[in-house]
Model the fold of this input.
Amino acid sequence: MQLEQELERFLGFRDFRVGQREVVAHVLDGKDCFAMLPTGTGKTVCYQLSGYLLDGTVLIVSPLLSLMQDQVERMRANGEKRVVALNSFLSLQEKQRALEDLSAYKFIFVSPEMLANRQIRMAIRRLTIGLFVVDEAHCISQWGHDFRPDYLELGAVREELGSPVTLVLTATATKKVRADIKNQLRLTACMDVIHSVDRPNIALDVQKMDSRFEKQAQLLKLTGLLKGPGIVYFSSKKLAERYAFEIAEQHGLRTAFYHGDMSGEDRVTIQQQFIQNQLHLICATSAFGMGIDKGDIRYVIHFHMPGDLEAYLQEIGRAGRDGAPSIAILLYADGDEAIQLQLQDRDLPEEELVHLSPALTEQLPITERRFLEFYRELGLTPNQIKEKIQFRKRWKRENLYTFLNFIKGITCRRQFVRHYFEEEAKQEAISNCCDVCGVDHADFEGENETIEEQQDWQKYLEYLLK
DNA sequence: CGCGTTGGTCGTATGACCAACGCGGTGCTATACT
Done:
């Protein structure tokens, strides 16, 4: 068919990558499509090319401001001027102007929160939406149920816009999560384009430690041996900061930390430095990573475990996008799950709070408050809300314990992952598969590239002044 | 939950000990004011 020609004509690529062609074909056929494609497959191409080949506007729901800005800039750099991001980066005047002239844009990026705004929705309703895209759709299931409830309104918004053809994009979602997402978006008949989450070039290494001290020592040892660039994930902002300095000092590496308390400006700087190879490694919380377009990340270490296997795969999936051998190392000491258990509990309100009066609900911390208000506005009874809380708590806890089974397991890690995602078992042997099958660590060790010293004193000064 | 920090006590060492406490992650938007 001529889709290849269109691809070259509009985007300048010769060939489709895995899954892209199928997705575009479904969309052009007027079918809703759930696409689960590996990280780095260029999910953007799917909606961009579809957009050029169909009538109407492409509306893309995106979870992060930085991600939107990034996509907009990239598309503009490729010569597409009819693109805009409706978000809080726009001044009031810019926003008004954009809304008045919305039909001038072919691609509109928007956050779920913006779509909750009536004025915005009214403006969008005047358009013909040719394609409704939900990017990083696992966020619906991962965040929508607790701290970003507007994600749960997307189904209603979609219907309000006349149920346009919908494209759902993500890299990691189990069957259970895919069903949840479809349910939330009110998608009934939907074509699935599902590819494996398994990334054969990433060695899966779980290292069980006897104590925290051993874990600390191992982290310092590993960061000295491994060849970067790398990411180390923590569940604590304080520790991310501390180790960024300690590792830099001990190994003479250029490091930085990254977490949600930093200003947008600082976050952009660090991200750019990392992408442009100005840093050997980043010590980060889960705030870091989504939308990071860097091919040559060679290792991802977890000093703390994330809350479930999907989050883990998301985070390690940032390694080895270029296809070259990379390693994911998870350091685990007994009881590490305590932090995750605690965080999970904090997300959701205590069950008894469903009976709280609206006035008292306002006094609650913001996430708990919004959870309750959201379901009350939907007209749920206290008992129904209580059931939601119980269901959600159980869901999270079960996922955490399954992840623990992965960590404590004694079978091939890769087979475990494939089984968890209900994929077929892998037949062919993989070199450097996992710690159970055997990993040659020497393959991932080596001197880090030297980085020109520049403005180091500036960073140091900033640190001292804090 | 369990770790690390804080702060009180002891009673005279400028530290040592222990109990109590608090911390531990993810993002959007709106709007007022210095």
